[in-house]
Amino acid sequence: MADGAVLVESDGGGVTTVTLNRPEALNSLSLEVEETLQELLPRLEADDGTRVVVITGAGRAFSGGGDVKEMRPGGAWDISAAERQERLEALHSVAVALHALPKPVIAMVNGVAVGAGCNLALACDLRLASEKAKFGLVFRNVGLGDDMGGAWLLPRLVGMGKALELFFTGGIIDATEAHRIGMVNRVVPAESLVEETYGLARSLTAGPAKALGLIKEELYGGITWSFQELLDFEAQRQSALMSEHDHQEGVAAFVEKRPPMFTD
Q: What is the spatial distance between Cα 24 and Cα 248, in angstroms, rounded to a whole number?
């Protein structure tokens, strides 16, 4: 996809980049963006050529969150409560799809990420942030609670106390503080963000795709499953992976003292 509110580009080596492309509106999540992401993510899951997904924003922002202009009287959200609920459930399906995608998803946070834009980054598996990035759960500033799952995602990264503080105050924190509290994985100079992100992405594309997908499912499932449920799941799925080429290649490479060549 070469134009529109969301750009999609594959490097031909397993990395697909999804760019929110509304720089004039700080890449706010308009209905068009939301609907495009809802349609796109299932396609990326089914695409064997996509092994890692990178999500970023065009211009100086990752995403400024929901499009406030659409929330004004007469705007796209000026509909019945039942219709708004349906729309929110559709938006939430984006976070669910990112969480369930059996492939690593990296948020390349190039600038401001606030509100639903911050939650979009939280719904990714890894977050690399420019030193110029800023984060905020600013819903209370417009008289709203959370949406898109941040209230579930953030406490698991930073703890309940810090999550409550960020949501209650609606304040903005810089990338250094976001890294200190565990919201992001790495902070890098702005000029190095692309290189660092794609270096990580390409290292993941060289990994065993099915095993990485299983690891993601195990870690996220383990948050809510009982210990025994996780063990049962691991036994079932691990035994199946032992028949796959990548496991056999990994064992052979270990014995032969060479780097593995994963292909699954």
A: 50
At CA 198, angle to CA 37 and CA 53, rounded to 5? 25
The phi and psi torsions of 173 (rounded to 5 degrees) equal -120, 150
pLDDT tens-digit profile of 13-69? 999 999 999 999 999 998 899 999 999 999 999 999 999 999 999 999 999 998 888
**Among residues 154, 126, 10, 136, which one has the least CA distance to residue 63?**
136
Question: Rounded distance, CA 261 to CA 250, Å?
Answer: 8
The β-bridge relationship of strands 112-114 and 134-136 is: parallel
Residue whose token pair is 């580009």: 9
Backbone angles phi, psi at 232, to 5 degrees: -65, -40
User: What pLDDT, on the 0 to 100 scale, is given for residue 3?
Assistant: 62
Question: Which among 102, 107, 124 has a CA at the least distance from the CA of 215?
Answer: 102
Non-local CB neighbours of 29 within 8 Å, separated by 6+ positions: 20, 63, 65, 66, 67, 91, 116, 117, 120
Give the HSE-up count for residue 132: Cα atoms under 13 Å, Cβ half-sphere.
12
Q: What size, in residues, is the chain?
A: 264
For the chain, percent of residues with pLDDT exceeding 70: 99
How many C-beta atoms surround the C-beta of residue 214 within 10 A? 18
d(CA 228, CA 176): 38
Tell me phi and psi for residue 112, to 5 degrees. -65, 140
Structure tokens at 190: 């702005």
> Tens digits of per-residue pLDDT, 71-95?
888 888 888 999 889 888 988 999 9
Q: Any idea which residue has 């997908």 for tokens?
A: 213
